[in-house]
Fold:
Amino acid sequence: MGAGVLKDAVAGINTWATQGLRQTGPMLKVGEAYGTLAFSDKTQQARLPKAVYRSLRDTITHGKALDISTADAVATALKDWALEHGASHFTHWFQPMTGVTAEKHDSFYNPTGDGRTLAEFSGKELVRGEPDASSFPSGGMRSTFEARGYTAWDPTSPPWILMNGNNATLVIPTAFVSWTGEALDKKTPLLRSMEALSTQAVRVLRLFGSTASRVTATCGPEQEYFLIDHNFYFARPDLINAGRTLFGARPPKGQELEDQYFGSIPERVLACMAEVEAELYRVGVPIKTRHNEVAPSQYEVAPIFESANVATDHQMMTMETLKRVAPRFGLACLIHEKPFAGVNGSGKHVNWSMSDDHGNNLLNPGDTPHDNMQFLFFCTAVIRAVDTFQGLLRMAVAHAGNDHRLGANEAPPAILSVFLGDMLTDIFEQVEKGGAKRTKSGGLLDMGVSVLPKLPRDAGDRNRTSPFAFTGNKFEFRAVGSTQNVAFPSTCLNVAVAESLDAMASELEKMLAGRKGAAAFNEAVAALLKKTVKAHKRIIFNGNGYADSWQKEAATRGLLNLKTTVDALPEIVKPGVVRTFEKFKVLSERELHARYEVNLENYSKTINVEAQLMVLMANRYILPAALEYQKRVAESVSAAKQAGVASKEGGKHLTRIVGLVDRFRALTETLSTALDHGSPSAEKHARYMRDKIVPMMGALREVGDQIELLIPHELYPLPTYREMLFVK
Ligand code: ADP
Ligand code: MG
Structure:
């Protein structure tokens, strides 16, 4: 069967190679197509009455509450626009705590009673929806008899039209809350955290003499993913149900050639990427870059940054579009953090900064950062935030999938630290000594070829091993997993930085009491920065995050090293975190506990599903094949014996196979029995899964992979790593 799947894949690839490109249709004119399916600012301006447009803009840019007459007018325009694009339904699209998105489609059309049907859509329907909340996790915040939950239109994120073969749906981004107003989703806390950050950042800007009135958290998430032939995908129960391979011997060493990274992209893959991008452009997602990643068959897509909540919606749409479009090209998109053991996993780099309403990036150092006190203030606040909230930020990226990545010497370590690079480190060292006087320059890069221009060089190289790196004019949170919704990591960053800005602003205000003038101000800021940098510089680390010495050094610096999800999750309910989230009204203690419970349960569920799948695959795929091969070898050995030839090696081979099969069978049984287990609490259960089940899965896999390497290709029922990663 393995061979059959390979044949199907090859046939598909051949068809693609000879006919594929001709089937893809005309090339997309990006300039014309961009945003045509989004109810963007431009569309709003064109289609809304002037007063309505102004009032909506006021809501979007200044957070002013929306009145119902505006909502009614927007609803009518939105409906007309959607119907013109062929939409028959609308949906309130939301992001429950499960990690994926949810939607319930309602028709615009209502029967009129005389056999006709009329399209209707009111402001009330736009503003509020009521899905059955009981089917979504609430982390114990409500029981099923108080199932009411509401979706509330988020006017700051533009609606769009989802084209799906023979139908079109108007998608309305919403936040999802319970009847009591508690956040049941990932969007609500993000929006609340953006408000909190804005308030504190504006307060700081005022101290620096700025007239800005609003600050927006900006986010540009880079997405890594794998594309493999879908014939292989469908032949692997583990890929279908767990998103990652649970068995699979590693391909021969050295096949993972470095030339994959930024190498040329295979034609079929490129065509698929282009189609994904075309769909995303139409709905207004500003995709910018695409390239190969480090592992074979691994790729990356990144947009231009946007306000954090719009970026979050667009990021979810990007993942969904990748999955939806890939099959059209005979491909399957794998977004899991670790689809293939022993091969680089996938992450999501969350680039993050803050922008004021005059368009200034608050983390832009300018040419002479040493005398850019405002930049140094904001940058110090971020450093302080990462140090103070290490545990929270580690928790924000903790889940079963990411446990395979963090600390596995291919992704950042589980220890949070900040990479600043040579230039900024030098400046902060000066700050700590009392004031920065100069900026180190990188100079010009001379390539030694006279026709090539001399390029300005950055004052420091990049560092791929850091979980949180300053990259020119933004921070890059690199520990985020590829499957994750970026809302929660962004929320945590926003809250952590809001707290820092608040604390630093309060202190500065105190220092300035009764003092006036630029000199006094500069002196106070320098003193505050000096003190803050001194207190938090332990979090700054520019070295190799993969080195063992860093683990030791981090321990002497007192940094947290929370190795697994189970270690990291409790950070979300630590008193300091609860106090801060409550102070900035982002999440209450109950809402935080709910998230703790949902995450804990997700962890145990994931491991349970994977382990059960392993038992299933062991019993129904690998063991039968192994037994068949064992029989063949036994027959061959006894045939030789009957012919009067004693095959010493044949006997040894048989002994080896029998030994492996016995071990494999026994380990399968042990795992299966161990899964039948109850725990007195969710915490205990998660710990049991980590300490007992995960190691058993590892042991079973090891023997399974040895069996794979032993039995003939035609007998092995699963596509191999070599096929999945290199046949494309
Ligand atoms: P790098 O080469 O450092 O990865 P890129 O320019 O390729 O930088 O940007 C990577 C991602 O960072 C992109 O999604 C980009 O839009 C985003 N980004 C750039 N500036 C900002 C910013 N001010 N805030 C948030 N994200 C940003
Ligand atoms: Mg990057």
About this structure: The chain has a mean pLDDT of 90. The first strand starts at residue 87 and ends at 94. The two ends are 19 Å apart (CA to CA). Residues 222, 349, 476 surround magnesium ion (ligand 2) (CB under 6 Å).
